[in-house]
Amino acid sequence: MRDNDIPMNLNCKLAIKSILPIFRCLNYLEKSVEKCKIVSRLDKCRVVFQFFCKHGIKRTHNVYFQDSQPLKILFEKSLCANILMIRPRLLTEAIVLLTSNQEEVTFSVTPGNFCLKSSSGESLDLSSSVYSEMSFDPEEFDFFQVGLDTEITFCFKELKGILSFSEVMHVPLSIYFDFPGKPVVLSMDDMLLEANFILATLSDHPSRVSSPQSQSLCLSQALRRTEPTQSSAQVGQSQASQAPESISRAAPKRLFPKDPLDSSCATETKRASTNQDDISEVPESVVSDMEEGPGPSQLRKFSCMFFGAVSSQQQEYASHPLDSLAIASDSEEDVSG
Amino acid sequence: MKFRAKIVDLACLNHFTRVSNMIAKLAKTCTLRISPEKLNFILSDKLASGGVSMWCELEQENIFSEFQMEGVSAENNAIYLELTSENLSRALKTAQNARALKIKLTNKHFPCLTVSVELQLSSSSSSRIVTHDIPIKVIPRRLWKDLQEPSVPDSDVSIYLPALKTMKSVVEKMKNISNHLVIEANLNGELNLKIETELVCVTTHFKDLGNPLLSSESASQSRHPEDMAEVHIDIKKLLQFLAGQQVTPTKAVCNIVSNRIVHFDLLLEDISLQYFIPALS
Question: What is the annotated signal peptide range for this record (chain B) (predicted)?
Answer without folding.
Answer: none
